[in-house]
Amino acid sequence: MLNTLSGRFLLLTTVFVMLAEVLIFVPSVARFREDYLELRLERAQIASLALLASETLDADLETELLENAGVYNVVLRRDEVRQLALSSPIPEPIHATYDLRGASALQLIRDAVGTLLDPDERIIRVIGDPVQQGGLLIEVTMDQAPLRAEMLDYGLRILILSAVISVVTAALLFAAVQAFLVTPIKRVVAQIQSYADAPEDARRIIAPRAGLRELHEAETALQAMETQLTSALRQKDRLAQLGSGVAKVSHDLRNILTSAQLFADRLESSEDPLVKRMAPKLVGSISRAVSLCESTLAFGRAEEPPPQLARLPLPALVAEVLEAERLAAGEEAEIAFVDEVPPGLVLRADAEQLYRVLSNLVRNARQAILAQGGGGRVTVSAREDEDAWWIFVADTGPGLPPKAREHLFRAFRGGVAKGGSGLGLAIAAELVRGHGGRLELARTDATGTEFAICLPRNAPKPLLG
């Protein structure tokens, strides 16, 4: 019971109601004690009036008047000189004196608590104002035990009533919490369990219908999360199917490229100067294509292979990437490929994977410039600091559209060029993450776009167990 929300709420409600009743109980008992004492003063004043009406009273009548008033003696001061008194023997000395004239609420509460906590037989003196302006003051001596018994009886009745009120209030609140909070939460939990059984089924996505604002907001957030998750699962399924198809194509394409590589090797023995100059580049391109096919096959089986880190001269790699893109752009395209990498810059990376990253970024930049129908410039620059190597690929294209920026680095959703799949940026980001770095969009506006590659210089520190 206490492990449920409604059970704990019921317990807390009971405790808080009882606490409130206790805070009411103490002043109530103090007020009851004050009324009890004032009633004794009033009865004592009435008894003393009998003495005023007759100069002498029979001893038995005086005793009866005192017993009816519940006191041992009475002193009524009507002026500064004359006093009227009824008296009888006091069994023991007076323990305390209580003056009700002008007593503060705090003092009355303190005296009431003291009376409740004192179980001994005590004789007390009580002083108060006479009723109907019947004198200056009235003073009585009485037993404390009957007062304490009456206070305990009154307090017990208050506690019983408080307990009944607490139980009824807690039951009503329990029912309200069950109806307005627990039941809607259980409905949401049941929907989550239903969605978990078949997250690909869009019909199981929750439809917000809670009346409470907080629960409605929670259901709305859950609906957005389930919608994104369903979309992501469908996307992963399409990627899995695509990966299977690409793996099959890569397998056959690798065999074809291997044969082409054998023929290209023979071109290196040609005496033609142009062939001699172009043959190594052709062989390198075919070798890289074969390597890419093998990596694609590995990706289709599991994931991108881990990078083989080694010291790598960056200027040579960038020059190779830019030269390949110049050939792809052709002489008619008015695109300038600018290499601003500092000479002698060496970093630690996987040469093949970094080539693929830069090739994807430079190719995207070239395509963006061609898409706007004019000339432009693609610039590759780099720098290093104490923590990382930074490589920048910038272009003077039209900038990324909002949709591409929203889903950047996500396959099939972050395509930049019209009709593009977005796989290039997704693959590049994954390869950079494999190096422990990050690929990010540094700038995009009407003047162009710039991507930044950050490769850490130091390996991450191992976690201490």
TrEMBL record:
Q: Which UniProt keywords apply?
A: Cell membrane, Coiled coil, Kinase, Membrane, Phosphoprotein, Transferase, Transmembrane, Transmembrane helix, Two-component regulatory system, Virulence
Q: Give EC number(s), comma-separated.
A: 2.7.13.3
Q: Which GO terms describe its molecular function?
A: phosphorelay sensor kinase activity
Compartments where found: Cell membrane
Q: Which reaction does it catalyse?
A: ATP + protein L-histidine = ADP + protein N-phospho-L-histidine
SUPFAM superfamilies, per the entry: ATPase domain of HSP90 chaperone/DNA topoisomerase II/histidine kinase, Homodimeric domain of signal transducing histidine kinase
Protein name according to UniProt: histidine kinase
